């Protein structure tokens, strides 16, 4: 039986670096899909749907592959906060989440390109954000440029600045960086990859 190629369906350098820790040979393909929220869509449902859509798009173009895709969705007070993409929106997001609880859902999907069958899981993180002042927010945004991170939240560089309280029930912070490795490892074992 021919060994399947492993493809990471992402252009995120953070996801690439996390996947490298599993010592797998893989290539990256950016799925380039519409990541807009559907009407009345819950954050966890959105993260799952987007991970599946990313994998499907790549699987439609590749054969003999296992495609790994992921999506992160942040919400606060019932509002989904996507990637800010601009400095202005990043500042607005951080002002909005200041001194509030934010919930992150990070999905992980592994899809077989030959059968289109997939396995999916999701990690959930609940974080209480510190009270942030405008000057600190501007300094954080200008220093770390969190334009491609959900809610302008980059755990790996801002945990001390942003987090007031965090109980890691997942026991795996990699999902906050973009790829829940513990859940991915379990799925890859089911595919006999690890």
Walk me through the structure.
The protein has helices at 13-20, 43-59, 87-97, 134-144, 155-162, 174-177, 181-190, and strands at residues 5-8, 27-28, 65-76, 79-81, 101-112, 118-129, 163-166. With 194 residues, the chain is α/β, with parallel strands linked by helices. The protein has a single domain (5-190), classed as Maf protein, CATH 3.90.950.10. Strands 1, 2, 3, 4, 5, 6 and 7 form a seven-stranded mixed beta sheet that branches. The longest helix has 17 residues, at 43-59. The radius of gyration is 17 Å and the shape is elongated.
Count of alpha and pi helical runs: 7
According to DSSP, the number of beta strands is 7
Give the strand content: 25-35%
Remind me, CATH topology?
Maf protein
Radius of gyration: 17 Å
Features:
194 residues, alpha/beta, Maf protein, seven-stranded mixed β-sheet, 7 helices, 7 strands
């Amino acid at each position: 039986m021919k060994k399947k190629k492993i493809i990471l369906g992402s252009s995120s350098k953070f996801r690439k670096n996390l996947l490298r820790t599993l010592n797998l040979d893989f290539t990256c393909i950016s799925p380039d899909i519409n990541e807009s929220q559907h009407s009345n869509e819950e954050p966890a449902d959105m993260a799952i749907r987007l991970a599946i859509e990313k994998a499907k798009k790549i699987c439609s173009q590749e054969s003999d592959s296992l495609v790994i895709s992921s999506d992160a969705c942040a919400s606060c007070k019932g509002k989904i906060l996507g990637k800010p993409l601009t400095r202005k929106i990043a500042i607005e997001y951080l002002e909005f989440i200041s001194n509030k609880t934010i919930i992150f859902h990070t999905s992980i999907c592994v899809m077989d390109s030959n059968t289109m069958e997939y396995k999916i899981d999701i990690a959930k993180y609940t974080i209480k954000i510190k009270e942030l002042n405008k000057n600190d927010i501007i300094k954080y945004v200008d220093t770390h440029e969190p334009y491609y991170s959900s809610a302008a939240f980059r755990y790996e560089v801002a945990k001390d600045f942003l987090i007031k309280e965090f109980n890691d029930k997942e026991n795996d912070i990699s999902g906050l960086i973009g790829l829940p490795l513990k859940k991915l490892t379990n799925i890859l074992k089911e595919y006999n990859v690890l």
